[in-house]
């Protein structure tokens, strides 16, 4: 609506706010990388990721290489910029949304091997995509600058990933020492102290990254990858991880509000009609590649054959991490990054709307949804008493069909006189 985006200087003033939000998104993504859960289906997850990632990347590369040069939004760019645009679009649209998948699982109460595979594979895929994104940013800069590929230039992305992991470990140590230390405060004040402290430390990682930009290429880091590594260190680390994970989960909605607002500020609907053929081609190509990759992965891993035809529906959703990568593109490449951001955000919003519906349907289709609600029954002086206690009747069928009964937990709440 151009309330903020009408003046680019206002967006520049809010740069640190955006970076803090990106840091929280990265921390939340890293917190979902629980190694104990991944080990339960290590083979199926590994094969699924190995099959889906190249299939989707190859399909997106074909679509972008064919259609991006003909799209009005990208006309006037030279061949090097077109190659970089195609590379970054293909990388961003590889991302998934573990947070959305987990939200659907919590909403439906789904539980089973199929559910765990979809959630854990999405987490691993997102981790791989963030690492791949850090590498492809380097390659895009080499392409745009026209620098020839050498052994040293090929090693830069791997050094960048290693340095980002070390900075992420240092970030986790700072958070553990300064932010998560025991404090005697009321719950609300403690939450405010820890969430703001985590937010400010995340901004500090981005400031540190900006400071290193003037150094040699080998000294640079990827701040988003640092935050993902920090979250992974915490969620697989010592006991304070529960406090950290709960702090990030509670603070994330408050950081999503300004983040998505600022993303909307740079969106322009004027030229959206000209890129619709490319948007729908990318969406269709991505779905086809997901179908092929998920089917092949399930077949190779020896998963139930009756799930092969709709397993792909668990990997459609995109959300925070993908949009965070879009935002980072616009910061890294001011010349053409905004155009890539607008195109990718359009695709991501469609996947954000369609993905959870597909995932919910497929969970019901495989029979791993437990339609269990909670009914609170109030009992007390002058009020009717429920004839059975929760221990005697933990659940009660309240409707549905014989094949898929709807059940509810009965909680008896006793009131005092």
Structure description:
Helices cover 67% and strands 6% of the residues. It has 417 residues and is mainly alpha-helical. Strands 1-3-2 form a three-stranded mixed sheet, with no helix packed on it. Strand 2 and strand 3 form a beta hairpin. Helix 2 (15-31) crosses helix 11 (241-265) and helix 12 packs across helix 14. It is globular and about 60 Å long. The relative contact order is 0.16.
Sum this structure up briefly.
The protein is mainly alpha-helical and 417 residues long. It has 14 helices and three strands. The termini are far apart.
By DSSP, the count of extended strands is: 3
Q: Taking strands numbered 1, 2, ... along the chain, how are they ordered across the largest sheet?
A: 1-3-2
Measured between the Cα atoms of the first and last residue, the distance is 55 Å
Characterize the largest beta sheet: strand count, sense, and whether it forms a barrel.
3 strands, mixed
What share of residues is helical? Answer: 55-70%
Which stretches are low in confidence, meaning pLDDT under 50 for 5 or more residues running? 372-417
Structural class: mainly alpha
From the spread of the alpha carbons, the general shape counts as globular
- Oligomeric status of the shown chains? single chain
Q: What fraction of the residues are assigned to beta strands by DSSP?
A: 5-15%
Overall average residue pLDDT:
78
Q: What is the radius of gyration?
A: 23 Å
Q: Given the structure, what is the number of helices?
A: 14
Order of helices and strands: HHHHHHHHHHHHHHEEE
């Amino acid at each position: 609506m151009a309330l903020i985006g009408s003046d680019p200087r206002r967006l520049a003033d809010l740069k640190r706010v955006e970076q803090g939000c990106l840091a929280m998104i990265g921390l939340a993504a890293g917190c979902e990388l629980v190694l104990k859960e991944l080990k339960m289906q290590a083979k199926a997850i590994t094969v699924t990721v190995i099959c889906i990632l190249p299939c989707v990347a190859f399909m997106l590369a074909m679509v972008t290489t064919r259609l991006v040069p003909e799209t009005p939004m990208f006309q006037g760019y030279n061949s090097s910029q077109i190659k970089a645009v195609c590379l970054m679009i293909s990388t961003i649209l590889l991302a998934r949304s573990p947070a959305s998948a987990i939200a659907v699982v919590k909403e439906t109460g789904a539980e089973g091997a199929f559910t765990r595979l979809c959630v854990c594979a999405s987490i691993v895929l997102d981790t791989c995509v963030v690492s791949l994104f850090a590498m492809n940013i380097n390659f895009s800069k080499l392409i745009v600058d026209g620098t020839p590929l050498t052994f040293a230039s090929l090693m830069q992305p791997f050094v960048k990933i290693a340095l980002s992991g070390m900075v992420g470990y240092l970030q986790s140590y700072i958070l553990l020492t300064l932010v998560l230390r025991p404090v005697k405060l009321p719950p609300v004040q403690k939450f405010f102290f820890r969430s703001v402290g985590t937010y400010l430390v995340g901004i500090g990682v981005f400031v540190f990254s900006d400071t290193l930009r003037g150094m040699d290429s080998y000294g640079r880091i990827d701040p988003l990858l640092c935050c993902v590594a920090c979250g992974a260190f915490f969620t697989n680390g010592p006991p304070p991880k529960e406090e950290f994970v709960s702090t990030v989960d509670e603070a994330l909605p408050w950081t999503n509000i300004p983040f998505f607002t600022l993303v909307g500020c740079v969106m322009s609907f004027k030229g959206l009609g000209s890129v619709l053929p490319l948007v729908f081609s990318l969406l269709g190509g991505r779905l086809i590649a997901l179908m092929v990759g998920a089917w092949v992965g399930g077949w190779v891993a020896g998963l139930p054959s009756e799930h092969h035809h709709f397993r792909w529906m668990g990997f459609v959703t995109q959300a925070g991490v993908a949009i965070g990568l879009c935002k980072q593109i616009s910061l890294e490449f001011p010349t053409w990054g905004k155009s890539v951001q607008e195109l990718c955000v359009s695709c991501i919003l469609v996947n954000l709307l369609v993905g959870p519906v597909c995932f919910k349907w497929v969970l019901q289709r495989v029979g791993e949804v437990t339609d269990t609600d909670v009914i609170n029954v109030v009992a007390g002086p002058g009020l009717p008493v429920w004839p059975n206690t929760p221990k005697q009747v933990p659940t009660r069928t309240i409707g549905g069909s014989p094949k898929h009964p709807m059940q509810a937990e009965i909680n008896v709440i006793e009131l005092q006189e």
